[in-house]
């Protein structure tokens, strides 16, 4: 449990006062260790400080700290966050747990913050069990039915993406004309939220819609609290006195309430206006399923808002982060942008827009998307898991109810899996015939695995494909200043702000929708 190497490393640097404090801390830690169950002795890990454990060591990039610790202690090690023991899984141990012992590792911890999501009935943050299974089945089948289910649903989804990208390009061109360089962040957030809003609620919003701005603007704060190392969850006593972490937690409660109010208002409006014979969107579908479908035997109607809230919520921060990285990579690597344009141009006539059917003919586009996902690993650590029973991994016993962190980043950057993992190189996913290497793409881990694997994976890949091809087919993206590759950590790892210019490519005569009413939205962002 105690990392003697580390203590010895820092020993010469300590003053007499620090030595006294360290001795006291060690005594306390030894006392705590004596009271801990046998697991504490069997799973290795860094030395935990009293009260806070290893919380301070996680820093602003926990996944990097975890990967460093995995090199020292192996794929399975433990850290203490406050009074909670957390087992961190890295590399191949992730598959061992999530695939080979899927049920054992499918739980969620009893964290206080999780109870505020989706009115306390969240499937994504709820624990494993019979009601959760029914909930997930319903959410998964409905998501499919409105996205990748069949060619008709694909086409309907495609038209949402196409409309939104056209609107987005209009705004990009206007901003370039007005300012030369601008920050695309907000536009990308609203456009991705609008695609899912059309699917979930049958409605898209103007970029200056105050309510929508507030709802989609909550992403960053939500993600900060839910990511690995959410402090109030592991040190509940932080709620007892004023401090910045308590303030953040109160904001988290508030934004979840606001978000849930928004969702409930949508559901109420749908109940008033829907007709049984015509399902307009996912909200209608959930109302029908939970009022009279087979799901109504297990779940009450109260689950309509939480299910649609989970889907709308889970899709926003993830997809908007993905497209922010995609645009960043386009401007950072102009040669890659050029190659994407050349590939798309070969297969897609200049007189039409790219469609889903083009996907199989443009492997480099998919290679680029997989490389963005691998390289950035923008959900480096999944939503925390918990064990549902006493179990073991790599020979280490793990009791029921242990918090488990899954470090996806570690697999995507493992030098034994990837040649030069720190180099951004989409080409790595193409085989000698220029086709997408499916064995390699299946090694990229951003949607997790097993029972909790993301239900939006196929929808997301389809959306990212359309988004990327539509953008490169129509526009050139440049940046005066090369954007850095580092990011800001929460549940998602977001790029730092960057500026771009966008121009239409030669020969493109697409009708872009110009919205001249959203000057306020734009001006607020400057
Ligand atoms: C690029 C986009 C996305 C990425 C990278 C992503 C990734 C993830 C990850 C890592 C998890 C946690 C899995 C775990 O705890 O082991 C998750 C869960 C989830 N995702 Fe996604 N997601 C994306 C988009 C979406 C979309 C568009 C939807 C909605 C259709 C969605 C719905 C969900 C839900 C409902 C869960 C909870 C699953 C459960 O707990 O059983 N995600 N996603």
From TrEMBL:
Q: Which GO terms describe its molecular function?
A: heme binding; iron ion binding; steroid 17-alpha-monooxygenase activity
- Quick one: which residues bind heme? 454
Q: Where in the cell is it found?
A: Membrane
**Superkingdom to which the source organism belongs:** Eukaryota
Q: Which PROSITE patterns match?
A: CYTOCHROME_P450
What are the alphabetically sorted keywords of the record? Heme, Iron, Membrane, Metal-binding, Monooxygenase, Oxidoreductase
Q: Per the UniProt entry, what is one GO biological process?
A: hormone biosynthetic process
Q: Pull one GO CC term from this UniProt entry.
A: membrane
Q: Identify the stretch annotated as signal peptide in this record.
A: none
Required cofactors, per record? heme
Similarity-based family:
Belongs to the cytochrome P450 family.
UniProt protein name:
Cytochrome P450, family 1, subfamily B, polypeptide 1
Kindly list the organism's lineage: Eukaryota, Metazoa, Chordata, Craniata, Vertebrata
């Amino acid at each position: 449990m105690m990392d003697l190497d580390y203590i010895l490393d820092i020993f010469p640097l300590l003053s007499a006062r620090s030595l006294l404090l360290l001795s006291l801390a060690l005594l306390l830690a030894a006392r705590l260790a004596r009271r801990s169950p046998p697991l504490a002795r069997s799973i290795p890990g860094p030395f935990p400080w009293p009260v806070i454990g290893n919380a301070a060591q996680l820093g602003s990039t926990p996944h990097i700290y975890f990967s460093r610790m995995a090199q020292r202690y192996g794929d399975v090690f433990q850290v203490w966050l406050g009074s909670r023991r957390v087992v961190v899984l890295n590399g191949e141990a992730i598959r061992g747990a999530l695939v080979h012992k899927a049920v054992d590792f499918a739980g969620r911890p009893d964290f206080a913050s999780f109870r505020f999501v989706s009115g306390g009935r969240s499937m994504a943050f709820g624990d494993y069990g019979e009601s959760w299974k029914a909930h997930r089945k319903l959410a998964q089948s409905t998501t499919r039915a409105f996205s990748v289910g069949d060619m008709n649903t694909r086409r309907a989804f495609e038209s949402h993406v196409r409309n939104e990208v056209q609107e987005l390009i209009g705004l990009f061109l206007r901003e370039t004309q007005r300012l030369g360089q601008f920050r695309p962040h907000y536009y990308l957030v609203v456009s991705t939220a609008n695609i899912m809003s059309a699917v979930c609620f049958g409605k898209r919003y103007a970029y200056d819609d105050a309510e929508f701005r507030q709802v989609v603007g909550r992403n960053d704060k939500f993600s900060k609290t839910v990511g690995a190392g959410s402090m109030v969850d592991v040190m509940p006593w932080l709620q007892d006195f004023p401090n910045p972490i308590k303030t953040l937690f109160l904001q988290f409660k508030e934004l979840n309430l606001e978000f849930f109010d928004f969702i409930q208002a949508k559901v109420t409006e749908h109940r008033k206006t829907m007709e049984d014979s015509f399902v307009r969107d996912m909200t209608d579908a959930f109302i029908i399923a939970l009022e009279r479908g087979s799901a109504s035997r297990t779940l009450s109607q109260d689950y309509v808002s939480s299910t649609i809230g989970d889907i709308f919520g889970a899709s926003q921060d993830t997809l908007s982060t993905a497209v922010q990285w995609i645009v960043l990579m386009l401007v950072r690597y102009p040669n890659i942008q050029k190659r994407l344009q050349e590939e798309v141009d070969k297969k897609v006539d200049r007189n039409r827009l790219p469609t889903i059917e083009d996907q199989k003919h443009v492997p480099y586009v998919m290679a680029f998307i997989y490389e963005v996902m691998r390289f950035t690993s923008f959900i480096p650590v999944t939503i925390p898991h918990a064990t549902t029973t006493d179990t073991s991994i790599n020979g280490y016993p793990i009791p029921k109810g242990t918090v488990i962190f899954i470090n996806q980043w570690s697999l995507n950057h493992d030098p034994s899996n990837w040649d030069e993992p720190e180099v951004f190189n989409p080409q790595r996913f193409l085989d000698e015939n220029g086709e997408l290497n499916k064995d390699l793409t299946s090694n990229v881990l951003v949607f997790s695995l097993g029972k909790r694997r993301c239900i939006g994976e196929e929808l997301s890949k389809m959306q990212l494909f359309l988004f990327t091809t539509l953008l490169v087919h129509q526009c050139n993206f440049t940046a005066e200043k090369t954007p850095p590759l580092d990011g800001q950590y929460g549940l998602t790892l977001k790029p730092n702000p960057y500026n771009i210019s966008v121009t239409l490519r030669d020969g493109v005569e697409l009708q872009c929708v110009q919205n001249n009413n959203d000057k306020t939205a734009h001006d607020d962002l400057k």
